[in-house]
Amino acid sequence: MDATSFLDKLIATGATTRQSHSASAALLRRDPENRLLARGPRKRLTPYAIRDAALFTSDLLNGKIGGPSVKPYMPPGIWRSISNASYKQDKGDKLYRRGMYTYWRRTVPPPTMMAFNAAAREICTVRTDLTTTPLQALTLLNDPLFFEASRALAQRAVREIDGGTDKRIDHVFRICTARLPGDLERRELADSHRRLVAVLRRDPGAVAQLVPEKIEGLAPVEVGAWTGVCSVVLNLHEFITRD
Fold it and tell me: Is 175 within the bounds of a domain?
């Protein structure tokens, strides 16, 4: 092992890097800015990492390295609003490449990235501010990519876990947060699943919108209901925050 690899391993596995963000009141008074590194950082993920995390947990992430930029989902007509240029969206697995490969036009940056405080790149930006806004929650719930990630994660849960609702909730929660849900969290998600199943059974049109294509071996109502549950989990603060 060379010196650089050894140093990387030492940093990644050291006590400072692996410690919790929790701190006592006395420690917070002594070191409010954590300059002594006595606790771990608690920081929201970057816009690129949030997008990649959703794709990774749902098994949609295209891990290809290198190559030209890609054009994922973009609100229709947004380029036309300022110029005659047209945005030609990519298709297939190009939609699910890592965020760092997203085509970036400085005058019209990707709205999803901007919602999570990405730099517009019109000027040099050393450090971006981090905010928490209702628009971010709406993006996680309604953006086409995050919706598709929720549906893919739902399919994964139904396929991989042949058991009751609680087991599937535990599976989804552990994939997204690296822990099992608490009793209250499990009850709330189970209740959401139960209510979604009841609604979708009464509304075939809603099922068709949630699950537009038949999935072999999976009931559309179940996939639709679990899509809603997975969307809730992907919207958790804990999912988009590094603890």
Answer: yes
Q: Determine, yes or no, domain membership for 40.
A: no
Which domain covers residue 213, as residue numbers?
136-242
Closest C-alpha to 64, from 95, 92, 98: 98
As a residue count, the chain comes to: 243
In whole angstroms, what is the distance from residue 81 CA to residue 111 CA? 14
What is the full DSSP assignment across 71-98? -----TTTTTTTSS-------GGGGGB-
The pTM of the full predicted model, rounded to 2 decimals, is: 0.84
pLDDT tens digit sequence for 100-135 = 999 998 888 899 999 999 888 888 888 888 888 899
Report yes or no on 174 lying in a domain: yes
Phi, psi of 3 (to 5 degrees): -65, -40
CA distances from 123 to 54, 82, 107, 128, 179 (A): 29, 19, 11, 12, 40
The two structure tokens encoding residue 216: 């072999």
| Under 8 Å between Cβ of 53 and 47 | no
Best CA proximity match to 95, nearest among 152, 137, 154, 136: 152
Count other Cβ atoms within 10 Å, centred on residue 114. 15
Q: Give the total number of structural domains in the chain.
A: 1
CA 160 from chain centre, in angstroms, equals: 20
pLDDT in tens, 142-159: 999 999 999 999 999 999
**How many angstroms separate the CA atoms of 53 and 73, rounded?**
17
